[in-house]
Amino acid sequence: MAEARFSRLGLFLLLAAVLAVAVCSIIYELLIGSVSAYFLGDSVEQFSLTIGIFLFAMGVGSWLTRWIRKDLLARLIALELWLGLVGGASVAVLYLAYAEGSHYRYWMVLLTLLVGGLIGLELPLLTRLLQQYGPLRSTLADVLSLDYLGALVAALLFPYLLLPALGNLHTGLLTGLVNALVGAGLLWNCWGQLEPRWRLGLALLAGGALGALGALLAGANPLLERWESELYADRIVHSQQSRYQKIVLTRWGEDLRLYLDGHLQFAAVDERRYHEALVHPAISLSASRQRVLILGGGDGLSAREVLKYPQVEEVDLVDLDPAITDLARRHLALTRLNHNALSHPKVQVHNQDAFTFLREAQVPYGVIIADLTDPRTEAIGKLYSVEGYRLCRRLLGPGGVLVTQATSPYHARRAFWCIGQSLEEAGFRVYPYHALVPSFGEWGFHLAATQPLDLDPLRLEVALDFLRPELWPGMRLFDPDMERLPVEPNRLDRPVLGRYYREEWGE
Does the active-site annotation cover 371? Predict the structure, then answer.
Protein backbone atom coordinates (compact mmCIF):
# COMPACT_ATOMS: atom_id res chain seq x y z
CA MET A 1 0.00 0.00 0.00
CA ALA A 2 1.48 3.40 -1.02
CA GLU A 3 1.95 6.00 1.67
CA ALA A 4 -0.69 8.74 1.50
CA ARG A 5 0.29 12.33 0.84
CA PHE A 6 0.24 14.74 3.74
CA SER A 7 -1.75 17.92 4.25
CA ARG A 8 0.15 21.15 4.70
CA LEU A 9 -0.07 20.75 8.49
CA GLY A 10 1.02 17.12 8.22
CA LEU A 11 4.02 18.10 6.11
CA PHE A 12 4.92 20.79 8.65
CA LEU A 13 4.71 18.24 11.47
CA LEU A 14 6.89 15.85 9.51
CA LEU A 15 9.55 18.53 9.04
CA ALA A 16 9.17 19.43 12.72
CA ALA A 17 9.82 15.78 13.51
CA VAL A 18 13.11 15.98 11.59
CA LEU A 19 14.18 18.99 13.65
CA ALA A 20 12.91 17.44 16.91
CA VAL A 21 14.83 14.23 16.27
CA ALA A 22 18.02 16.22 15.75
CA VAL A 23 17.59 18.46 18.80
CA CYS A 24 16.46 15.69 21.12
CA SER A 25 19.06 13.19 19.97
CA ILE A 26 21.96 15.55 20.71
CA ILE A 27 20.46 16.45 24.10
CA TYR A 28 20.06 12.75 25.00
CA GLU A 29 23.67 12.16 24.01
CA LEU A 30 24.91 15.13 26.06
CA LEU A 31 22.81 14.06 29.05
CA ILE A 32 24.14 10.50 29.12
CA GLY A 33 27.72 11.74 28.69
CA SER A 34 27.48 14.45 31.36
CA VAL A 35 25.72 12.22 33.91
CA SER A 36 28.33 9.49 33.35
CA ALA A 37 31.16 12.02 33.78
CA TYR A 38 29.46 13.24 36.98
CA PHE A 39 29.22 9.76 38.48
CA LEU A 40 32.32 8.06 37.05
CA GLY A 41 34.73 10.94 36.40
CA ASP A 42 36.99 11.25 33.34
CA SER A 43 34.79 13.30 31.03
CA VAL A 44 36.99 12.47 28.03
CA GLU A 45 36.38 8.73 28.44
CA GLN A 46 32.67 9.08 29.16
CA PHE A 47 31.92 11.35 26.21
CA SER A 48 34.13 9.28 23.91
CA LEU A 49 32.22 6.12 24.83
CA THR A 50 28.84 7.84 24.60
CA ILE A 51 29.51 9.37 21.17
CA GLY A 52 31.10 6.20 19.77
CA ILE A 53 28.35 3.85 20.96
CA PHE A 54 25.66 6.35 19.96
CA LEU A 55 26.91 6.68 16.38
CA PHE A 56 27.41 2.93 16.09
CA ALA A 57 23.82 2.33 17.23
CA MET A 58 22.57 4.94 14.75
CA GLY A 59 24.36 3.07 11.98
CA VAL A 60 22.79 -0.23 13.04
CA GLY A 61 19.34 1.38 13.18
CA SER A 62 19.73 2.91 9.73
CA TRP A 63 20.88 -0.43 8.31
CA LEU A 64 17.84 -2.20 9.76
CA THR A 65 15.40 0.11 7.94
CA ARG A 66 16.11 -1.71 4.66
CA TRP A 67 13.65 -4.38 5.81
CA ILE A 68 10.85 -1.89 6.53
CA ARG A 69 8.82 -1.75 3.33
CA LYS A 70 5.34 -0.61 4.37
CA ASP A 71 3.42 1.31 7.02
CA LEU A 72 6.26 3.83 7.17
CA LEU A 73 4.16 6.54 8.82
CA ALA A 74 2.81 4.27 11.56
CA ARG A 75 6.27 2.93 12.33
CA LEU A 76 7.71 6.46 12.39
CA ILE A 77 5.09 7.59 14.92
CA ALA A 78 5.79 4.54 17.08
CA LEU A 79 9.52 5.21 16.94
CA GLU A 80 9.01 8.87 17.88
CA LEU A 81 6.93 7.88 20.91
CA TRP A 82 9.37 5.18 22.02
CA LEU A 83 12.30 7.56 21.60
CA GLY A 84 10.58 10.15 23.78
CA LEU A 85 9.88 7.56 26.47
CA VAL A 86 13.29 5.87 26.50
CA GLY A 87 15.36 9.00 25.98
CA GLY A 88 13.32 11.07 28.41
CA ALA A 89 13.59 8.47 31.18
CA SER A 90 17.29 7.75 30.57
CA VAL A 91 18.61 10.15 33.22
CA ALA A 92 16.13 8.82 35.79
CA VAL A 93 17.26 5.26 35.05
CA LEU A 94 20.95 6.24 35.34
CA TYR A 95 20.36 8.04 38.66
CA LEU A 96 18.54 5.00 40.00
CA ALA A 97 21.23 2.60 38.76
CA TYR A 98 23.96 4.62 40.46
CA ALA A 99 22.04 5.09 43.72
CA GLU A 100 21.27 1.37 43.90
CA GLY A 101 24.75 0.31 42.76
CA SER A 102 23.13 -1.66 39.94
CA HIS A 103 25.92 -1.93 37.32
CA TYR A 104 25.79 1.69 36.16
CA ARG A 105 28.07 1.11 33.17
CA TYR A 106 25.82 -1.59 31.71
CA TRP A 107 22.76 0.64 31.95
CA MET A 108 24.66 3.52 30.37
CA VAL A 109 25.70 1.37 27.39
CA LEU A 110 22.22 -0.15 27.01
CA LEU A 111 20.47 3.23 27.03
CA THR A 112 22.97 4.68 24.56
CA LEU A 113 22.40 1.73 22.22
CA LEU A 114 18.61 2.02 22.49
CA VAL A 115 18.45 5.78 21.96
CA GLY A 116 21.00 5.70 19.14
CA GLY A 117 19.27 2.77 17.45
CA LEU A 118 15.85 4.45 17.56
CA ILE A 119 17.27 7.64 16.04
CA GLY A 120 19.04 5.61 13.38
CA LEU A 121 15.72 3.98 12.47
CA GLU A 122 13.86 7.30 12.34
CA LEU A 123 15.94 9.39 9.96
CA PRO A 124 15.75 7.03 6.95
CA LEU A 125 11.98 6.65 7.45
CA LEU A 126 11.55 10.42 7.54
CA THR A 127 13.59 10.74 4.35
CA ARG A 128 11.50 8.11 2.57
CA LEU A 129 8.23 9.75 3.63
CA LEU A 130 9.39 13.15 2.39
CA GLN A 131 10.73 11.76 -0.88
CA GLN A 132 7.30 11.96 -2.54
CA TYR A 133 7.52 15.78 -2.35
CA GLY A 134 10.65 16.14 -4.47
CA PRO A 135 13.67 14.35 -5.93
CA LEU A 136 15.96 12.43 -3.61
CA ARG A 137 18.74 15.02 -3.76
CA SER A 138 16.50 17.84 -2.51
CA THR A 139 14.86 15.60 0.11
CA LEU A 140 18.22 14.55 1.49
CA ALA A 141 19.37 18.18 1.47
CA ASP A 142 16.28 19.24 3.44
CA VAL A 143 16.53 16.42 5.98
CA LEU A 144 20.26 16.81 6.55
CA SER A 145 20.12 20.61 6.79
CA LEU A 146 17.37 20.40 9.43
CA ASP A 147 19.32 17.67 11.20
CA TYR A 148 22.48 19.78 11.39
CA LEU A 149 20.48 22.86 12.39
CA GLY A 150 18.92 20.85 15.21
CA ALA A 151 22.38 19.76 16.38
CA LEU A 152 23.45 23.40 16.67
CA VAL A 153 20.27 24.37 18.54
CA ALA A 154 20.78 21.52 21.03
CA ALA A 155 24.48 22.31 21.49
CA LEU A 156 23.57 25.91 22.43
CA LEU A 157 20.51 25.13 24.55
CA PHE A 158 22.05 22.40 26.70
CA PRO A 159 25.00 24.19 28.39
CA TYR A 160 23.64 27.73 28.41
CA LEU A 161 19.96 27.23 29.30
CA LEU A 162 18.72 23.72 29.98
CA LEU A 163 21.41 22.31 32.28
CA PRO A 164 21.90 25.36 34.57
CA ALA A 165 18.16 26.17 34.69
CA LEU A 166 16.65 22.68 34.91
CA GLY A 167 19.39 20.18 35.78
CA ASN A 168 19.94 16.80 34.16
CA LEU A 169 16.79 15.02 35.32
CA HIS A 170 14.30 17.74 34.40
CA THR A 171 16.08 18.39 31.09
CA GLY A 172 15.83 14.71 30.13
CA LEU A 173 12.17 14.44 31.03
CA LEU A 174 11.23 17.69 29.29
CA THR A 175 13.15 16.68 26.15
CA GLY A 176 11.41 13.30 26.12
CA LEU A 177 8.04 15.01 26.53
CA VAL A 178 8.73 17.27 23.54
CA ASN A 179 9.78 14.24 21.52
CA ALA A 180 6.62 12.34 22.47
CA LEU A 181 4.39 15.36 21.75
CA VAL A 182 5.74 15.53 18.19
CA GLY A 183 4.84 11.86 17.77
CA ALA A 184 1.38 12.44 19.28
CA GLY A 185 0.87 15.42 16.97
CA LEU A 186 1.70 13.30 13.93
CA LEU A 187 -0.71 10.64 15.16
CA TRP A 188 -3.53 13.15 15.61
CA ASN A 189 -3.00 14.82 12.22
CA CYS A 190 -2.54 11.61 10.26
CA TRP A 191 -5.16 9.49 12.04
CA GLY A 192 -7.22 9.01 8.90
CA GLN A 193 -4.21 7.85 6.89
CA LEU A 194 -3.35 5.03 9.28
CA GLU A 195 -4.71 1.52 8.91
CA PRO A 196 -7.22 0.62 11.66
CA ARG A 197 -4.92 -2.08 13.05
CA TRP A 198 -2.34 0.58 13.97
CA ARG A 199 -4.62 3.21 15.48
CA LEU A 200 -5.46 1.69 18.86
CA GLY A 201 -1.92 0.53 19.57
CA LEU A 202 -0.41 3.91 18.71
CA ALA A 203 -3.06 5.74 20.74
CA LEU A 204 -2.28 3.58 23.77
CA LEU A 205 1.47 4.07 23.26
CA ALA A 206 1.04 7.85 22.97
CA GLY A 207 -1.09 7.98 26.10
CA GLY A 208 1.34 5.77 28.01
CA ALA A 209 4.44 7.70 26.94
CA LEU A 210 2.93 11.12 27.67
CA GLY A 211 1.42 9.90 30.95
CA ALA A 212 4.64 8.28 32.16
CA LEU A 213 6.82 11.26 31.27
CA GLY A 214 4.31 13.71 32.72
CA ALA A 215 4.12 11.73 35.97
CA LEU A 216 7.91 11.55 36.22
CA LEU A 217 8.19 15.27 35.54
CA ALA A 218 5.59 16.07 38.20
CA GLY A 219 7.36 13.89 40.74
CA ALA A 220 10.91 14.76 39.69
CA ASN A 221 11.78 16.86 42.74
CA PRO A 222 10.82 14.23 45.35
CA LEU A 223 12.60 11.56 43.29
CA LEU A 224 15.71 13.70 43.03
CA GLU A 225 15.69 14.38 46.78
CA ARG A 226 15.34 10.67 47.52
CA TRP A 227 18.17 9.66 45.18
CA GLU A 228 20.47 12.39 46.46
CA SER A 229 19.76 11.45 50.07
CA GLU A 230 21.03 7.96 49.29
CA LEU A 231 24.27 9.38 47.87
CA TYR A 232 25.05 11.59 50.88
CA ALA A 233 25.18 10.43 54.48
CA ASP A 234 24.08 13.75 56.03
CA ARG A 235 21.08 16.00 55.54
CA ILE A 236 21.21 18.04 52.31
CA VAL A 237 20.84 21.77 53.04
CA HIS A 238 21.59 23.03 49.52
CA SER A 239 21.54 21.36 46.12
CA GLN A 240 22.19 23.13 42.84
CA GLN A 241 23.16 22.25 39.29
CA SER A 242 25.34 25.01 37.89
CA ARG A 243 26.54 25.31 34.33
CA TYR A 244 29.72 23.49 35.35
CA GLN A 245 28.95 21.05 38.17
CA LYS A 246 26.55 19.66 40.74
CA ILE A 247 26.88 21.55 44.04
CA VAL A 248 25.65 19.97 47.27
CA LEU A 249 25.99 21.19 50.85
CA THR A 250 25.21 18.74 53.66
CA ARG A 251 25.06 19.23 57.40
CA TRP A 252 25.09 17.07 60.50
CA GLY A 253 25.25 19.09 63.67
CA GLU A 254 28.14 21.51 63.21
CA ASP A 255 29.72 19.50 60.40
CA LEU A 256 29.06 21.33 57.13
CA ARG A 257 30.31 19.52 54.01
CA LEU A 258 30.63 20.66 50.40
CA TYR A 259 30.46 18.21 47.49
CA LEU A 260 31.15 19.03 43.85
CA ASP A 261 29.95 16.40 41.38
CA GLY A 262 29.66 14.00 44.28
CA HIS A 263 33.24 14.52 45.53
CA LEU A 264 33.90 15.91 49.01
CA GLN A 265 35.68 19.28 49.01
CA PHE A 266 35.79 19.98 52.73
CA ALA A 267 34.30 18.93 56.07
CA ALA A 268 33.95 21.68 58.65
CA VAL A 269 35.14 19.40 61.46
CA ASP A 270 38.68 19.19 60.07
CA GLU A 271 38.99 21.64 57.15
CA ARG A 272 41.35 23.85 59.19
CA ARG A 273 43.96 21.09 59.07
CA TYR A 274 43.90 21.24 55.26
CA HIS A 275 43.63 25.01 54.81
CA GLU A 276 46.22 25.91 57.46
CA ALA A 277 48.67 23.39 55.98
CA LEU A 278 48.02 24.74 52.50
CA VAL A 279 48.22 28.48 53.17
CA HIS A 280 50.52 29.34 56.06
CA PRO A 281 53.85 27.69 55.12
CA ALA A 282 53.77 29.48 51.76
CA ILE A 283 52.94 32.88 53.24
CA SER A 284 55.48 32.47 56.03
CA LEU A 285 58.28 31.58 53.59
CA SER A 286 57.50 34.22 50.97
CA ALA A 287 59.50 37.43 50.75
CA SER A 288 56.32 39.38 50.00
CA ARG A 289 52.68 38.92 50.90
CA GLN A 290 51.11 42.17 49.71
CA ARG A 291 49.49 40.53 46.67
CA VAL A 292 48.18 36.96 46.85
CA LEU A 293 46.63 34.89 44.08
CA ILE A 294 44.27 31.99 44.91
CA LEU A 295 43.43 29.58 42.10
CA GLY A 296 40.18 27.79 42.96
CA GLY A 297 39.15 28.11 46.60
CA GLY A 298 35.68 29.34 45.70
CA ASP A 299 34.39 28.29 49.14
CA GLY A 300 36.37 31.19 50.65
CA LEU A 301 38.24 29.09 53.23
CA SER A 302 41.73 29.69 51.83
CA ALA A 303 40.93 33.39 51.56
CA ARG A 304 39.92 33.34 55.24
CA GLU A 305 43.40 32.10 56.16
CA VAL A 306 45.16 34.61 53.89
CA LEU A 307 43.27 37.52 55.42
CA LYS A 308 44.71 36.73 58.84
CA TYR A 309 47.85 38.61 57.75
CA PRO A 310 47.54 42.40 58.03
CA GLN A 311 50.33 42.86 55.44
CA VAL A 312 48.07 41.39 52.73
CA GLU A 313 46.70 44.25 50.66
CA GLU A 314 45.10 42.49 47.69
CA VAL A 315 43.79 38.97 47.09
CA ASP A 316 42.74 37.82 43.61
CA LEU A 317 40.62 34.67 43.78
CA VAL A 318 39.99 32.90 40.47
CA ASP A 319 37.21 30.31 40.41
CA LEU A 320 35.44 29.31 37.22
CA ASP A 321 31.97 28.75 38.69
CA PRO A 322 30.09 31.84 39.91
CA ALA A 323 27.56 29.55 41.60
CA ILE A 324 30.25 28.46 44.09
CA THR A 325 31.48 31.95 44.93
CA ASP A 326 27.90 33.26 45.18
CA LEU A 327 27.08 30.42 47.57
CA ALA A 328 30.15 31.26 49.66
CA ARG A 329 28.93 34.84 49.93
CA ARG A 330 25.28 34.24 50.83
CA HIS A 331 24.82 30.87 52.56
CA LEU A 332 24.82 31.69 56.27
CA ALA A 333 26.47 28.47 57.41
CA LEU A 334 29.21 28.89 54.83
CA THR A 335 29.79 32.58 55.55
CA ARG A 336 30.14 31.75 59.25
CA LEU A 337 32.77 29.17 58.35
CA ASN A 338 34.73 31.35 55.92
CA HIS A 339 34.28 34.54 58.01
CA ASN A 340 32.60 36.15 54.99
CA ALA A 341 36.00 36.28 53.30
CA LEU A 342 34.72 36.71 49.75
CA SER A 343 32.93 39.93 50.70
CA HIS A 344 36.08 41.42 52.25
CA PRO A 345 37.21 44.62 50.45
CA LYS A 346 40.71 43.19 49.91
CA VAL A 347 39.34 40.20 47.97
CA GLN A 348 38.58 40.45 44.27
CA VAL A 349 36.73 37.44 42.81
CA HIS A 350 37.30 36.55 39.15
CA ASN A 351 34.85 34.02 37.72
CA GLN A 352 36.86 32.80 34.77
CA ASP A 353 39.07 29.94 33.67
CA ALA A 354 42.21 29.98 35.81
CA PHE A 355 44.45 29.00 32.88
CA THR A 356 43.17 31.99 30.89
CA PHE A 357 43.66 34.27 33.89
CA LEU A 358 47.28 33.11 34.25
CA ARG A 359 47.94 33.81 30.58
CA GLU A 360 46.46 37.31 30.71
CA ALA A 361 47.65 38.53 34.13
CA GLN A 362 50.63 40.89 34.16
CA VAL A 363 51.19 42.07 37.75
CA PRO A 364 53.36 39.78 39.94
CA TYR A 365 52.25 38.08 43.15
CA GLY A 366 54.20 37.29 46.27
CA VAL A 367 52.21 34.11 46.92
CA ILE A 368 50.20 31.86 44.58
CA ILE A 369 47.93 29.29 46.24
CA ALA A 370 46.47 26.54 44.04
CA ASP A 371 43.45 25.36 46.03
CA LEU A 372 42.05 23.41 43.09
CA THR A 373 39.80 20.38 42.93
CA ASP A 374 41.56 17.06 42.42
CA PRO A 375 42.84 16.39 38.86
CA ARG A 376 40.32 13.67 38.07
CA THR A 377 39.66 15.06 34.59
CA GLU A 378 41.89 16.45 31.85
CA ALA A 379 40.04 19.79 32.00
CA ILE A 380 41.18 20.28 35.60
CA GLY A 381 44.52 18.60 34.98
CA LYS A 382 45.69 21.40 32.66
CA LEU A 383 46.16 23.59 35.74
CA TYR A 384 48.49 20.92 37.15
CA SER A 385 50.52 20.79 33.93
CA VAL A 386 54.07 21.91 33.19
CA GLU A 387 52.65 24.66 30.98
CA GLY A 388 50.27 25.82 33.73
CA TYR A 389 53.08 25.98 36.27
CA ARG A 390 55.25 27.94 33.85
CA LEU A 391 52.50 30.55 33.70
CA CYS A 392 52.50 30.64 37.50
CA ARG A 393 56.29 31.02 37.52
CA ARG A 394 56.01 34.01 35.23
CA LEU A 395 53.68 35.71 37.74
CA LEU A 396 55.74 35.10 40.88
CA GLY A 397 57.57 38.13 42.14
CA PRO A 398 61.13 38.01 43.55
CA GLY A 399 61.21 35.66 46.52
CA GLY A 400 57.69 34.52 45.75
CA VAL A 401 56.28 31.11 46.72
CA LEU A 402 53.72 28.86 45.04
CA VAL A 403 51.87 26.12 46.90
CA THR A 404 49.45 23.56 45.51
CA GLN A 405 47.35 20.86 47.03
CA ALA A 406 48.48 17.62 45.44
CA THR A 407 46.02 14.86 46.44
CA SER A 408 47.09 11.99 48.71
CA PRO A 409 50.70 10.73 48.67
CA TYR A 410 49.40 7.49 50.19
CA HIS A 411 46.26 6.73 48.16
CA ALA A 412 47.42 8.38 44.93
CA ARG A 413 51.18 8.16 45.19
CA ARG A 414 51.98 8.47 41.46
CA ALA A 415 49.61 11.42 41.07
CA PHE A 416 51.20 13.23 44.01
CA TRP A 417 54.74 12.86 42.70
CA CYS A 418 53.61 13.60 39.13
CA ILE A 419 52.54 17.05 40.33
CA GLY A 420 55.95 17.55 41.93
CA GLN A 421 57.72 16.37 38.78
CA SER A 422 55.62 18.79 36.68
CA LEU A 423 56.63 21.69 38.95
CA GLU A 424 60.29 20.76 38.57
CA GLU A 425 59.95 20.58 34.78
CA ALA A 426 58.49 24.10 34.92
CA GLY A 427 61.68 25.36 36.57
CA PHE A 428 60.74 25.33 40.26
CA ARG A 429 62.58 24.08 43.29
CA VAL A 430 60.01 21.83 44.93
CA TYR A 431 59.46 21.00 48.62
CA PRO A 432 56.79 18.31 49.26
CA TYR A 433 55.00 17.83 52.57
CA HIS A 434 51.84 16.23 53.91
CA ALA A 435 49.30 16.40 56.74
CA LEU A 436 46.62 14.12 58.12
CA VAL A 437 43.09 15.36 57.33
CA PRO A 438 40.73 12.72 58.78
CA SER A 439 37.97 13.33 56.20
CA PHE A 440 40.42 12.65 53.36
CA GLY A 441 43.28 10.68 54.92
CA GLU A 442 46.94 11.57 54.46
CA TRP A 443 47.00 14.62 52.20
CA GLY A 444 49.84 16.11 50.22
CA PHE A 445 51.10 19.55 49.18
CA HIS A 446 54.01 20.97 47.20
CA LEU A 447 55.78 24.23 47.95
CA ALA A 448 57.61 25.66 44.96
CA ALA A 449 59.93 28.61 44.43
CA THR A 450 62.46 29.78 41.88
CA GLN A 451 65.12 30.25 44.57
CA PRO A 452 66.08 27.92 47.46
CA LEU A 453 63.85 28.20 50.52
CA ASP A 454 65.09 28.03 54.10
CA LEU A 455 62.40 25.78 55.55
CA ASP A 456 63.63 25.70 59.16
CA PRO A 457 62.40 27.00 61.39
CA LEU A 458 58.84 27.70 60.22
CA ARG A 459 57.86 31.09 61.65
CA LEU A 460 54.11 31.41 62.10
CA GLU A 461 52.96 34.94 62.91
CA VAL A 462 49.24 34.29 63.45
CA ALA A 463 47.33 32.07 65.86
CA LEU A 464 46.29 28.75 64.31
CA ASP A 465 44.23 25.78 65.42
CA PHE A 466 46.32 22.97 63.91
CA LEU A 467 49.65 23.98 62.42
CA ARG A 468 52.57 24.37 64.84
CA PRO A 469 56.27 24.99 64.09
CA GLU A 470 57.19 21.75 65.89
CA LEU A 471 54.96 19.75 63.52
CA TRP A 472 56.66 21.11 60.40
CA PRO A 473 59.75 18.83 60.26
CA GLY A 474 57.58 15.70 60.51
CA MET A 475 55.26 16.93 57.78
CA ARG A 476 58.22 16.88 55.36
CA LEU A 477 59.12 13.24 56.08
CA PHE A 478 57.59 10.50 53.93
CA ASP A 479 57.16 6.88 54.98
CA PRO A 480 58.42 4.19 52.56
CA ASP A 481 54.92 3.67 51.10
CA MET A 482 54.70 7.39 50.28
CA GLU A 483 58.27 8.00 49.10
CA ARG A 484 59.01 9.40 45.67
CA LEU A 485 58.86 7.06 42.69
CA PRO A 486 59.56 7.59 38.96
CA VAL A 487 56.67 9.22 37.09
CA GLU A 488 56.15 11.31 33.96
CA PRO A 489 55.42 15.04 34.20
CA ASN A 490 51.92 16.15 33.27
CA ARG A 491 51.82 18.11 30.00
CA LEU A 492 48.99 19.57 27.92
CA ASP A 493 49.77 17.27 25.01
CA ARG A 494 50.33 14.25 27.28
CA PRO A 495 47.96 14.55 30.26
CA VAL A 496 49.13 11.57 32.34
CA LEU A 497 48.07 12.98 35.71
CA GLY A 498 44.37 12.26 35.29
CA ARG A 499 45.14 8.63 34.43
CA TYR A 500 47.41 8.24 37.45
CA TYR A 501 44.77 9.76 39.69
CA ARG A 502 41.82 7.68 38.44
CA GLU A 503 43.74 4.41 38.46
CA GLU A 504 45.04 4.88 42.01
CA TRP A 505 41.86 6.18 43.60
CA GLY A 506 39.93 3.52 41.68
CA GLU A 507 41.89 0.87 43.54
Answer: yes
